[in-house]
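Practice problem: predict the structure.
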Amino acid sequence: MSDANDRKRTVAVVGATGAVGEVVLRLLAERDFPVGELRALASERSAGTTVQFAGRDVEVAEATPDAFEGVDFAFFAATGGLSKTLAPEIAKRGGVAIDKSSTWRLDEQVPLVVPEINPEALEKHKGIVSCPNCTTIGFVMSLEPIRKLAPIKSVVVTTLQAVSGTGKPGIEELERQKGELAAGQAPSLDVYAAPIAENALPLCESFLEEGGYSTEEVKLLHETRKIFGDDSIDVSMTCVRVPVPVGHSAAMLVETERPVSPEEAREALAAFPGVEVVDDPSQNRFPTVYDVTGRDAVMVGRVRKDLVSDKLWLWQVSDNLRKGAATNAIQIAEEMMRRGLK
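Answer:
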């Protein structure tokens, strides 16, 4: 970061005890974010516990409006209910709320930002900035290099989503069920509608009342259109929860206005910031969640022409807790400082 941005900021992390909140704290230190004062906040039941930041214990306080006095950036890694109530309180006090929940994503007054794609949207912020869904981020990061070659008409995508997309409860459910199965017991259910251990669930979050789609699925359509500023892009999707701790994957069939060759696509993807290409079928080289977990890169492979059309197939993986959540949020704050917006 430049010298102009070395001024220390007062930073709050809401949901500091959760899966994403813990990663936000770790990455603020890793990225040398100019933190002067760090306020770890959570719901009332977590107040009084401690979290780690930069090698020291920080006591968690309850997230209330008064806790945001003097805050420059508040990273929300909590429930949508907290965000809906408290994000306006931060804006009212002159700070910026960067929210990971779905609460503000489709609000016309709130920018929905992936810094590598639409950083200019930050110029219109009014104190709240929204992060896309963790699946959407990897998805649009893979599409943007191709979109620069030729406008995208449609995408058919099937996602395979890790249990950490449901936070710590999802991770704990998977581990508990693995132990129960190993002991010869029937897996107990709490978070998901069916066992997730040794299984795959063709549903992420909940079904909508009409159409048979889940809330997770429709996000891919509406968020993609907002980020790209293009309501003509069609996205057809199925989202699947799989027994993987961290790392979302997606198989994508992309239709462009003119044919794009696999060679063109690989070159554009490899040149795009934040994207890595791993694609050598002769050596069985392709990206997996093992390769991407703990990293910020969105990895793409299996780039190939469809057998019956001019469409392109892609395989994409990303760490849903990092670039899919915490990293993207911190990059937003860094971009705002670079632009002199905070």
